[in-house]
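Input/output pair, single chain:
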Amino acid sequence: MSVLNNLSHYDQFLRNTFHADDAGLERLQAEAKQEGLPPISIGPEQGKFLQLLIQLNGATKVLEIGALGGYSGAWMARALPSEGKLISLELEEKHALFTRRQWAALGLADKTEIRVGPALDSLPGLADEAPFDLIFIDADKNNYPAYLEWALRYSKSGTVILGDNVSMGGRLADPEHQENPGIRGMRQFAEEMAANPRLVSTVVPYADGIAVGVVK
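Output:
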């Protein structure tokens, strides 16, 4: 389901050695392709990165904005302890149904929950679940600045906030694409991540770029 497969020999070695999907994740990706889900999920490198961050900060509560087919959520839910919880927001009912089935098949049903509808409608209802230990944003790019506001509202000291696709396929800083709403939203998001006094932030150059910030 991910299009992140045009790898150099070195990157392929790293994927084979450190990041390879197991049988369950391979099945998820194959079935997502069969069902026609968009081929826009993160790659295994980013999945392992999310896993490491969750384990490094001892996360027990994770919020994901944008579930798609459940691949990134599977990586994160697997990293959580048995009492941990992943809440994932997904716009499309079709994607949510697919994701629930996949998470159940992977033995993750008890640690996961998916809520369907526009994320900006769902986010106000999460106040009782906050604060979260890690928040991963991977949804409609024009709304990233609004998602960042909610992420900060639902954070505490030590919370990790991530936003995928910062590069926008290499177009983020291209003068010819600055009228694109998604690029404008991502650019604002990146600038606010960098400037917010509550955050220590950078961009990790995995694939299309992941912004990472830690709340002070």
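The mean pLDDT is 94. The chain is about 40% helix and 15% strand.
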